[in-house]
Amino acid sequence: MSSQRLPTPGRFVRVDGVPLHVVTEGAGPLCVLSGGLGMAWFDWDAVAALLAPYRTVVRFDRPGLGLSAQAPAPPTLAAEADRIARLLDALGHDGPATIVGHSLAGFHAEAFARLHPDRCAGVVLVDGSIEEDPRPLLPRAVRTAWAGGVAGVLSAAGMPRALGPAARRLVGRASTVGSHPPHPWERVGYRTSRVARACVLENATYPYQAAELAALRRARPLPPVPVTVLAAYDGSETAGRLRWLERQRALAAELGGRFAVAAPAGHLVMADVPESVARAVLDLTDTGRDATPLR
Q1: Residue 245: left if φ>0, alpha if ψ -120 to 50, beta else—which one?
Q2: Stated pTM of the model
Q3: Start and end of every AB hydrolase-1 domain (predicted)?
């Protein structure tokens, strides 16, 4: 299916000179959904549908991903946290927001809370990335230059167009326990050099973003907002899986937050059990009141 046959949801908002694709729906307290490495707005479809009756839900594509344009520079942790704040400014949302970060975007959600404490109402980390002692081995400029070169070679060889959507589907299948049909926009976005480059650069800058967060934790306290760490559990009893749950539990304790398990779920929790993500968001601000019923 071509992009000409698909109506583009949402709109484009220019943030720091970069046109970002954003979808806003619902009404009520503000909630921002940000996906993991290489993910797009549509990965949150099921969660957004559950939250929209109770929250104003904002989901957006980081530069190069989904339908957003490329940024002139590789991502950094502070830039991604600031991007969320500036996107909300551009949308006219100046009140506090609950930030939901999946995987790599868990770094961004926590950084947003530390760098913009007055604008954060709470944080939900959905199977968020964890690096207890990040120590990048190469200078950032060297690694990002190498990654940019790799992306250029792949694009020149036509690899994104030939294999991009298939690679995306393979990652999805490996990261879920359920069976989920491909989204119509997968083929449109993941066959482009733009998205391929963004994925490569996010992967290349991951260790530096982890190190930035470790330094930020020492420099900026977490504001007194509710935090939930939602860990994926597929039901297996392997040492690696159980160790991952303990690391997620330890992160919740470090942040003074609540630990919860989403099961049965792979890493793409929002696909396998979207109701667990929605419940974590609603419970975050409904503590002490009757639970909001999910429709």
Answers
A1: alpha
A2: 0.95
A3: 36-280
